[in-house]
Structures are given as C-alpha cells and as structure tokens.
C-alpha cells in the first residue's frame, strides 16, 4: 500500500498542497522535487517532513518572467551545479538550489518540451510534444542532436506521437513514453528507429496494453516501470517478456485509496528501491515498497 509523502490535502496552493503534480525527481537523501503543474511552481519535500513542502522555483503565478514558471511538467536535480532543471511553458530553465534564489536562467527556449533526463556525461535529453521528437543537448547549446523520433507524428518505429517522459541509461539508451501511441519505445544510441518495449497494442487495459504512457524508470536489469495513466496503475515489463507486463500498484479503478490512483503521471525510485508516483488528480505523491 502507498504512503502519502507529499500533498494529499486536496488541490490548492498552500505549502501542504499540490495542484496536478506531474514529473518528479528523488535525490539521494530521499528529498523529492515535484513539478506542481497548475501552481506554476516546483515543490520540494524533505524525507520525513510530510506536512509541508517548500517552493524552490516559481510560485509567482504563471508567466514567462525569469522569476516565473508556466505549467511545469518535469524537473530534475543536476548535482554538479546543485540546481534544478525544469521543463515549463516553451522553455527549459535552470534554478539554483541555493537559498535566496529568486529567478532562473533559460537554457533552451522555443521548444514545446514535456520531459527531461540527464545522463552520466551530463547531456540533457528533452522531449518535444510538438515536433514529436527527443533531442540531446550539451548544457549551454541551443539546438541539440536528434536522438528519437523526428519523422512526423504517427506510430512507425521511427516515429513518436506526443512523447512525454524520458529515461536514459548508462549506455545512453533513450526510453521514451510515446504517450498517444500507448507504448514505451527504446532507442539505442545512434539508432534510426526504436524498439517497442511496452504496449503498442492499441489503447486498452489488458496486460499487453497501455492507456497513455507517462513516467518511466528502468533498473539495471533493464526492467521497465511505467505509469499507465489512463488505467490508473503502474506496470512492470521485464526484458524477456516484451508481450505483456504485470500490474505492481493500482489497477483497482480510479480513486483515493492507498492502492489506487487517479491519473498517475511522474514515476521515480530512490536508491533504497522505493517507488514514488505523482498521483495527479489526487494531488499527492505516493511512496511504495516494491518486492
């Protein structure tokens, strides 16, 4: 069963509330940062303090000022610079985590970004839901290199249809939530097309199917975890079995119970193997111990 570690107090903008939490990132000390979409801010919740979070970016209304965010969808922590990198509006921005930070800087603009990932060489990967592609950027560069999709919006193996969340492994393999194709794609480094690793059997609730794929995480064995948003469940797909996954949490209809979700979005793990899920319409983040 899930434990609420952030929010869960109804929708709102007080520091104990969230409003449509989407992407999230868990630091080594189990601090969780959350893209609080409708509040136009990033919230940070420290491990053990489940009553209140703190605003660590934005929170000044929605807008494109340097002190503002506009509907943030994903966030990660860049440990090297101790900063947050955030997808929001039509740009990717960076906010220092040092106290007293009141504004961010623009890293990439004029991009319809949704999801973010960073590899061990500190390359940044960004999904673009308008161009249906994923690009890799060196920090400071504006154009990037195409690494997935970019061949129009459809369901070919070289195409994506509204890619949302990303995961990149040590080999710079890019996993993409291909949201409107109801599948997860794996693009090996330098590949011209992807491989379906989950779903891709149309939209539905069978174990072979997904209904809007969102947050993803891949462990060192190559096991994939995916937030199956429209089915209100989290699924696990193992390497050897591409045909169907297993439900590890949820799948009990939508609701606010400890074993239920109401549109799960972001998904991450801490280094102790606990699963974290941003439960969008319940305005909470749930933590689970996974066997």
Q: What is the domain total for the residues?
A: 2
Euclidean distance between termini CA atoms: 12 Å
CATH 4th-level superfamily of the largest domain: TolB, C-terminal domain
Rounded to the nearest angstrom, the radius of gyration is 17 Å
CATH class of the largest domain: Mainly Beta
Q: Which fold name is given in CATH as the topology of the largest domain?
A: Neuraminidase
What does the largest sheet look like?
4 strands, antiparallel
Instruction: Give the amount of beta strand, in percent.
Output: over 45%
- Can you tell me the overall shape? globular
Oligomer: single chain
Structural class: mainly beta
Percent in helix: under 10%
SSE diagram, text form:
Blueprint lengths: L2 E5 L13 E6 L5 E5 L4 E5 L8 E5 L15 E5 L4 E6 L2 E6 L8 E5 L3 E6 L4 E6 L4 E6 L6 E5 L13 E6 L5 E5 L4 E5 L7 E5 L13 E6 L5 E5 L4 E5 L8 E5 L13 E6 L4 E6 L4 E6 L2
Antiparallel strand pairs: 1-24, 2-3, 3-4, 4-5, 6-7, 7-8, 8-9, 10-11, 11-12, 12-13, 14-15, 15-16, 16-17, 18-19, 19-20, 20-21, 22-23, 23-24
Description:
The chain is an all-beta fold and 291 residues long. The protein folds into two domains: 1-106, Beta Barrel (Thrombin, subunit H), CATH 2.40.10; 111-251, Neuraminidase (6 Propeller), CATH 2.120.10.30. Helix content is 0%, strand content 45%. The protein has strands at 3-7, 21-26, 32-36, 41-45, 54-58, 74-78, 83-88, 91-96, 105-109, 113-118, 123-128, 133-138, 145-149, 163-168, 174-178, 183-187, 195-199, 213-218, 224-228, 233-237, 246-250, 264-269, 274-279, 284-289. A four-stranded antiparallel beta sheet has the order 1-24-23-22, with no helix packed on it. It starts with a strand and ends with a strand. InterPro entries: 6-blade_b-propeller_TolB-like, NHL_repeat. This is NHL repeat-containing protein. NHL repeats lie at residues 260-291.
